[in-house]
């Protein structure tokens, strides 16, 4: 896709607007499968939480992907999108036993990350295969809010609790068919990843009937020109060699599983917003757009850097701008960015808007959520309509009669 295509889409569908490039998603999927082509049994389970539009799920399903889900609602979306139950893994955190049982009843692979639910589920359903999420106590990830494998994390069963875990498995006689970990997102140091993998291999030796080992994901993608990223080819070579060695030691060909989300869809996404006001203050030039952190919260939540391009004036002289939104509190997309000269009415393109952008969007300030468009084989396909005022009111119950003053009774 080029700037001309994106500008045309804002004319056709309006702004703000999310646009996803199907070709980029496909190439990222192939890049990861090629990196691990030396593994006899590889399974990529797309992490639906990154971008859960039905059309995106259908695209990943057509590529041969499985699906990683964290809620029963994502499970149902996956089934609706055509994923077979056995190709979906359910990896929730802190949910009720009933929700896990509901997923299991649909034929989904369940992944349990705490001893309490493990014991309850194993006691009631010893014949249903279960994957166990391990916390390897390895700090990895680009931000404390997305690092989930450290000792203080709420995720996973601590490696120090393995004896207790094994006691539960023995007493319930439950079937453990998988071991899983996820250390965090935006991982750059593959040696840290490989170190955590060794902990997973050592844990796996305690279970004799495994079918797969799930190494999570968290591969970093570039957010700006020249940005560093996870070297998946190097990781592929090193982990493939080690995984194949372990399978020989284990005496069985296991499946190597990953659950990439951001890696597959982040770079495929473009978020387009129109400039409402260019405001000069004593120290800053603000470019205020018709959007805010209600549509793209990552810069405010994680401090993430999304490259911002003025696609209306791509050859203009570069100036410094702070790009801000219309939400009625601090709402900054980027401070003091070098961007081609901005005029009111210009369209700005925010890169890397495929992952955790629409899925984290809200109606804060009673604003509408934008439309979503999929660019597939050179054509634009609307995959979600722009919200209207009726959507804001849809589930509200108007109790205006409750506040009407009671009529005075007349004494006869």
From TrEMBL:
Orn/DAP/Arg decarboxylase 2 C-terminal domain sequence ranges: 18-354
Gene giving rise to this polypeptide: lysA
All copies of domain Orn/DAP/Arg decarboxylase 2 N-terminal, residue ranges: 23-266
Keyword Cytoplasm applies: no
A Pfam short name: Orn_Arg_deC_N
Record-listed N6-(pyridoxal phosphate)lysine modification sites: 49
Protein name: Diaminopimelate decarboxylase
Catalytic reaction(s) noted: meso-2,6-diaminopimelate + H(+) = L-lysine + CO2
Required cofactor names: pyridoxal 5'-phosphate
Pathways per UniProt: Amino-acid biosynthesis; L-lysine biosynthesis via DAP pathway; L-lysine from DL-2,6-diaminopimelate: step 1/1
CDD domains associated with the record: PLPDE_III_DapDC (cd06828)
Annotated organism of origin: Allomuricauda ruestringensis (strain DSM 13258 / CIP 107369 / LMG 19739 / B1)
Broad class of enzyme this protein falls into: lyase
